Amino acid sequence: MLIDIVVPELGESITEGTITTWLVQVGEAVAEDQPLLELETEKVTAELPAPAAGVLREIVVGDGEDVPVGAIVGRIEAGATAAASPAKAAPAAAAPPAPPAPARAPDHPLSPAVRRLVDEHGLDASQIPATGKDGRLVKADVLDFLAAPAAADSSDPATGVSFESLTAPDLDPDRFGTGMATIAVAPVGLELPWRGGKEAPAVSAEAPSEGRGTRRVKMTRLRRAIARRLKEVQNNAAMLTTFNEVDMKPVMDLRARYKERFVDRHGVKLGFMSFFLKASVEALKRYPAINGAVDGDHIVYNDFFDIGVAVSSKRGLVVPVVRDADRLSLAEVEQEIRNLAGAARDGKLSLEQLSGGTFTITNGGVFGSMLSTPIINGSQSAILGMHNIVKRPWVVDGAVEVRPIMYLALSYDHRIVDGAEAVRFLVTIKEIIEDPARLLLEV
């Protein structure tokens, strides 16, 4: 009996998704509830499980295709078993030494979308590094391979600068606090060689022969959602940004004094984000409009403090939420941020972890940003931007000292937040960070 594989309800306001990768190929046996495919929505990437044990008989919708909720994407023959693979003939003589294993396991058939890309560009699939489950080659692997220069050409001979992606999940918390970043480096002025299995287009003698290619790549569903929501905020909110600067020495001295005991006691490092998050909660208590939002002709004031922490993941910018932050200790905040950052890195954030939020904090300092004007997250009225810490001259009790200074930025919706409130809110955070004992005393 054939059973339809149907896209289930994916959460409130989500009506469709994009199939990123089929994890099982036609003819393969599957167990009940075994993940069949990865489905990307504008909020999370979810695995679609098998409705019954059997054999996958048909893939109706391939990789990279959009599907609405309720759509049939494939069919399973319930109770069937996969055909046994034919036995391999014994070699007549000793085989020569095996070549190095290819990046993709040879027994994994290619999905239709991957096979189409490979054939169109005349590529050898075994030479493309595979990142899919169990070593499968996915569509993104082929696109990355086409976009990147060959291994032999991965650095400019004159400069030695590499074009590899740099991943920094363990940035020094003494400088940047909690955070993660994936940064693609391509120096300005260096031309990327043309890639592809087909003959390169002809060019005139006067025109440069390399570095003139273009690629047209469809936005991921998450990127489309980010673009749409940020533009909506710009169109609908009266957004304004105010700035201040804060002396980080008191917090840095406190962390240096207790960091080892903190780890021994709580099993997590003490970063800067927990101080700013707790300071923000105290400031939100004093200026409740900043913890609210506009809803038509009404203002919604929230009497709880769910703080979003912006995280850069491989899929793009996501904002998981620390729930009831006012009830958490510094250690509990650090533990929750670490858990959420790990889930973001692994693509395991749930809809619950991404939903809601009354205020957002973003840390551009992990990328080295000196100053920025962050855009408010939808359905909120403000966002706090942290930045890089730089040693600068600072006047202390009439004398000039070298201190670690950070710029802070607060973008806010001027429709419900007055300028004086925004400035005082930011000054409150500054005062708490420069005198962290205020967190204990709540003053």
Present the secondary structure layout.
Layout: E1 2-6, E2 16-22, E3 29-30, E4 35-40, E5 45-49, E6 54-59, E7 66-68, E8 72-78, H1 112-121, H2 139-147, E9 165-168, E10 181-184, H3 221-236, E11 239-247, H4 249-266, H5 273-286, E12 292-295, E13 298-301, E14 307-309, E15 311-313, E16 316-318, E17 321-322, H6 330-345, H7 351-354, E18 359-363, E19 382-396, E20 399-413, H8 419-434, H9 437-441
Parallel strand pairs: 14-18, 18-19
Antiparallel strand pairs: 1-8, 2-4, 2-7, 3-6, 4-5, 6-8, 9-10, 11-20, 12-13, 14-17, 15-16, 19-20
Helix pairs in contact: 5-6, 5-8
Provide structural commentary.
The chain is of the alpha+beta class and 443 residues long. Among the domains are: 77 residues, OB fold (Dihydrolipoamide Acetyltransferase, E2P); 221 residues, Chloramphenicol acetyltransferase-like domain (Chloramphenicol Acetyltransferase), CATH 3.30.559.10. It has 9 helices and 20 strands. A 6-stranded mixed beta sheet has the order 11-20-19-18-14-17. A 4-stranded antiparallel beta sheet has the order 1-8-6-3, with no helix packed on it. Strands 5-4-2-7 form a 4-stranded antiparallel beta sheet, with no helix packed on it. Helix 5 crosses helix 6 and helix 5 crosses helix 8. It is elongated.
